[in-house]
Amino acid sequence: ESTLGAAAAQSGRYFGVAIAANRLSDSTYATIAAREFNSVTAENEMKIDATEPQRGQFNFTAADRVYNWAVQNGKEVRGHTLAWHSQQPGWMQSLSGSALRQAMIDHINGVMAHYKGKIAQWDVVNEAFADGSSGARRDSNLERTGSDWIEVAFRTARAADPSAKLCYNDYNVEDWTWAKTQAMYRMVRDFKQRGVPIDCVGFQSHFNSGSPYNSNFRTTLQNFAALGVDVAVTELDIQGAPSSTYANVVNDCLAVSRCLGVTVWGVRDSDSWRSGDTPLLFNNDGSKKPAYTAVLNAL
Ligand code: XIL
């Protein structure tokens, strides 16, 4: 196959990309994105601050630009993200307790209703665990509403759109030996045991020298899949874009039957949220980097 998406589709998977609405007018960007990928995640446009800038007043202008571009170009869409401590609008940052809990529920219902039946996977909850060795939840205004906020978010999401796969998404959870990975594993196991509706786990996979790729990532994916959830690589970028590491990540996904696909977090290095790391598959001029070829050959 000659594109990443077509190559991934040979095994029933997707190869996706994060899209920024304001870059779609750049023809080099849009040409690569349309050609190479068969899944799209909005890089920022479906987040809480973008979709509910004032309480109860939803705005899907930018989100729909990404969504409509994806559908017009034949791509499926991952929704990102409904409940998160970051990129909250000011009104939400100032809420607490039962008012914040209700605002979270109302937000999930409002966004999921707009896209009902149209989203392949939703990142319902993002980044709820703390870094480091504690294995604890991250402190946040949402966590302070009560530690059941995550399962409430998932139950709300299931009722709002029963057709979407519901994912928990996090970073620094790729290395099986890390406490954060173990904490996330215990939560997913508990949700499955108690019937909390969760369908998938997203591994962001922002690899760099501080949180490097480890070959036990495949073990992590296998162990989560064995709990009865799908897994996905949701925000892949790798400092320096070493071809071997990119190929390893693809091979890890391909080795796990429940791995749905891989999403890279941007098109060209210049589009990256950490462009100084040159972590992506395309150069700034739109040419393919060695890591591109390594990924294509691995798929
Ligand atoms: C990042 C975007 O890429 C940036 O443009 C934005 O300024 C901050 O958020 N984990 C996530 C993503 O789940 O939503 C983040 O995206 C990167 C880390």
UniProtKB/TrEMBL annotation:
<comment type="similarity">
    <text>Belongs to the glycosyl hydrolase 10 (cellulase F) family.</text>
</comment>
<keyword id="KW-0732">Signal</keyword>
<keyword id="KW-0119">Carbohydrate metabolism</keyword>
<keyword id="KW-0326">Glycosidase</keyword>
<feature type="active site" description="Nucleophile">
    <location>
        <position position="235"/>
    </location>
</feature>
<dbReference type="GO" id="GO:0045493">
    <property type="term" value="P:xylan catabolic process"/>
</dbReference>
<keyword id="KW-0858">Xylan degradation</keyword>
<protein>
    <recommendedName>
        <fullName>Beta-xylanase</fullName>
        <ecNumber>3.2.1.8</ecNumber>
    </recommendedName>
</protein>
<keyword id="KW-0624">Polysaccharide degradation</keyword>
<keyword id="KW-0378">Hydrolase</keyword>
<dbReference type="GO" id="GO:0031176">
    <property type="term" value="F:endo-1,4-beta-xylanase activity"/>
</dbReference>
<feature type="domain" description="GH10">
    <location>
        <begin position="1"/>
        <end position="298"/>
    </location>
</feature>
